[in-house]
Amino acid sequence: FPTWKRTLARRTRESQMKRFCRAQAIQRRLAEIEETFRELEQQGTKLEKLLRDENDSLADQHTQWTNQLLYLVQKKNNLMTEESDLMIAVQELKLEEQQCQLDEKLRSYMNKEDALKTPEDEKAEQETLKQLVEVVNKRNILIQLQEEKRLSEL
Questions:
Q1: Is residue 134 within 8 Å of 57, Cβ to Cβ?
Q2: Which residues contact 48 (CB under 8 A, 6 or more apart)?
Q3: What's phi and psi for 55, nearest 5 deg?
Q4: Do 98 and 135 form a contact (C-beta atoms < 8 A)?
């Protein structure tokens, strides 16, 4: 292998490992969020029960429970937003992986001498290029979605 091919192969492996590590981190965080959701649901259920059952409790106690319940709802909404962001990141990772695979495939077709290419090779090269453009467009849409979401939060 010439040096540039080894370098390209090494960079491809490194980017695959980075994507894999990011995917694992996202998956761990999604599991943590799911567990936190369950805990918040349990706390919320207890507070709702207290609010319904304790009609003759002090107004201060009632207000405190209501504030705690609102805090739990706010915390749950924040977690839902984070979960949504992570799901977008998962989609982005999948598209990034597809793009890398299509890049490699296209590169193999482009490295072939034009005189040696069969009509099937040329058709496959065009199809791969078309798929690559579609994947890039999908990634662009995801990035625009993230940007719109970020701006709406501001």
A1: no
A2: 69
A3: -70, -30
A4: yes
> Could you tell me the pTM of the whole model?
0.78
Task: State the total domains in the chain.
Answer: 1
The Cα–Cα gap between 85 and 146 comes to 8
State which residues form the domain around 8: 3-153
Q: Which amino acid is at 60?
A: D
**Which residue is it, tokens 């078309």?**
130
- Give Cβ neighbours of residue 15 (< 8 Å, ≥ 6 apart): 100
Distance, CA of 13 to CA of 3 (rounded, Å): 15
Measure CA of the first residue to CA of the last residue in the chain; give whole Å.
51
Block residue for tokens 């909404």: 77
- What is the DSSP secondary structure assignment for residue 112, as one 8-state letter? S
Q: Which pLDDT tens digit goes with each residue over 86-125?
A: 999 999 999 999 999 999 899 888 888 888 888 999 999 9
Query: For 45-64, how does the pLDDT look when each residue is reduced to its tens digit (9 = 90+)?
Result: 998 888 887 766 677 788 88
